[in-house]
Design goal:
Blueprint lengths: L3 E2 L6 E2 L4 E2 L12 H14 L3 E5 L6 H10 L7 E5 L17 H15 L4 E6 L8 H13 L3 E7 L3 H8 L4 E7 L11 H7 L3 E5 L33 H18 L4 H10 L5 E3 L6 H8 L8 H10 L19
Parallel strand pairs: 3-4, 4-5, 5-6, 6-7, 7-8, 8-9, 9-10
Antiparallel strand pairs: 1-2
Length: 326
Amino acid sequence: MDYRTFGTTDLQVSPLGLGCMSMSGVYGPADDTESLATLHRAFDLGINFLDTSASYGNGHNHALIARALKGRREKIVIHSKSGSPRAPDASGRRGGSTPDYLIQTCEESLKRLGVEVLDIFCMSRVDPQVPIEESVAGMARLVEQGKVRYIALSEASATSIRRAQKIHPIVSLQMEYSLWSRDPEGDNLQACRDFGMGFMAYSPLGRGFFAGAIHNHQDLADGDNRGTHPRFQPGNLEHNLQLLAQFEAMAQEKSVTPAQLALAWLLAQGADIIPIPSSKTRRHLEENFKAINIKLTEDDLARLDAIMPPGAAAGARTREMDRVNV
């Protein structure tokens, strides 16, 4: 495996990371035994870059990873997000960007993960009511205290990135990026490249859409939060499935799975982009892993761009568009 230097850090990471969110019940039930086996299989394959969050399963995700890390900590790079809890009052407003919250969450994350330092601590969302300079200054204190090696942002606009960089080096941006969510191609990616930052593409399979398992609303299990997602709603879903049919036909022609084709497209967008597909089974993990060796031609990329140009998908990419690209 050819490892990559992640942004301006000294971290060497696999070209494909592992998102751990689905191991904590977000996309329907998960099984801890299979999740642990999936983590261990990822390590054996050479995948050494984990993405997690304090909010996944209210700490369950961190505790699960702690079990998997025993005896392997020095070989694994952990990127952990802060989460953005709702206010306890009637407003229900999302927060999580105050220095006090970020510091407390980092310390709790260290305990749950059973580690002394986080490789990368990432603020999950930019709160427009908290100046990003204050948030980053709080995270910088964690670096000074030796609790965090590097700090990062998620779903931050190019403007927020530039403001943050004036306070402390930001090593990466995490943002939704896939064939049907191409927002970063605006100015987010350019801002990252201006500062030599890494870019982590979350939901690279369109929340499982490009994995080929969802062809109608009934394919979503009870408790699967995609059931309320705009792009899976009646009307939008039918339009998106028409796009998917063309995409699946191309995957079949190339003798790859749709998931592998979607990941190969992302990997072709630049060596600074690390897709982090979420897997909770070894079968899906191993399928995704094979995308690393798929090379797309310029004609392939042009055809995919014609099938799924920016803005082609029906429906917003998230239920809370006011909380992304802030």
